[in-house]
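Internal tracking record. Fields below are filled automatically when a chain is submitted to the structure queue. Please do not edit lines marked as system-generated. If the sequence contains nonstandard residues, flag them in the REMARKS field before resubmitting.
Queue: standard
Priority: normal
Entity type: single polypeptide chain
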Amino acid sequence: MITVLRLGHRPDRDKRVTTHVCLVARAFGADKIILTTRDEKIRESVAGVVKRFGGSFELEFAASYKKIIRDFPGKVVHLTMYGEPYGTVAKAVGTEKDVLIVVGAEKVPGDVYDLAHYNASVGNQPHSEVAALALFLHRLLGDAGLEGHGGGEMKILPTGRGKRVVTTRTRAKGAARRDVGAGSPRRE
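SYSTEM-GENERATED OUTPUT FOLLOWS
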């Protein structure tokens, strides 16, 4: 099981970024995310995406990051710009059954560096935790991490132009699939 632990969340400042951390975790193959700050709006937003686009992604809240990290049964990877190259770390944990990936919001407490089995960096440069999480998950799971989101109410069909969205519930009633041009997506 791949779990992401989001440390900190300032509701006024981080709402959108934390939501993106959740969506990237889901889209790139993580099974679950744990937020250390309760925000029901984020839970509702993520639950809505899972309902519409499928998969079995879970979101939990927990107050103690130390307990989560210490009790985690697998390897713990902390994404930080100061760490080892992420490809090396992804290779090292690639066969582990359970991986906990820690990403920060505000300043990460110093003990996280010691609690984690690995401190991994994507480029040793300051940038987004969203980008770092996406790259690490893709390196860890490959394209397989991007698959397996079936069972939702909607499905996006790849297309070179425009937007193609199938509403599976409507489709089951016999509606034909439509292709739509660029602009707002239409649903079938």
